[in-house]
Amino acid sequence: xxxxxxxxxxxxxxxxxxxxxxxxxxxxxxxxxxxxxxxxxxxxxxxxxxxxxxxxxxxxxxxxxxxxxxxxxxxxxxxxxxxxxxxxxxxxxxxxxxxxxxxxxxxxxxxxxxxxxxxxxxxxxxxxxxxxxxxxxxxxxxxxxxxxxxxxxxxxxxxxxxxxxxxxxxxxxxxxxxxxxxxxxxxxxxxxxxxxxxxxxxxx
Length: 204
Description:
With about 200 residues, the protein is an all-alpha fold. About 45% of the residues lie in helices and about 0% in strands. The protein is built from 8 helices and no strands. The protein is rod-shaped, with a radius of gyration of 51 Å. The relative contact order is 0.06. Mean pLDDT is about 75; it is low at about 1-5 and about 165-170. Component of the Mediator complex.
């Protein structure tokens, strides 16, 4: 005689056993719990008065086993566990029946997704050490060390009409020794010698 036909000791039915060893039940409860990560779905449950059923409230309390470490590793949307904890409160269940509160929860969830990673990285990534302050000069240095050396003004480049300035001053030729006609660089003394040579040739 099978276990179904035998009511058991004391007339109590035997404990229920899943035919697939509970795998289908595990998947169904996992899917339902992760649906609670959507505020729109919670709003749907509230509008259809699921939260007024005491059996459904007990079912939500039973689903808290998903917060245990051996089950939480299967959760892909961790927000569902946050909303599952909030659904244990009657005030939150009643508030989610209003569209305004549903939009508020959805908007806060969006901002959390947007800024959570950056805020988290601020606490995870170590900050670089502060840069050392520049060392100050000792007070015992002489005053001349801090005075900058004056820079000599630039010397203009020589033009084509004037010869370059030669160091020593005495050996440099004066500009007055040149003939005033433009484009000639012949000294005045050489010009006079050339004219004297012409006169001597004529006299001869």
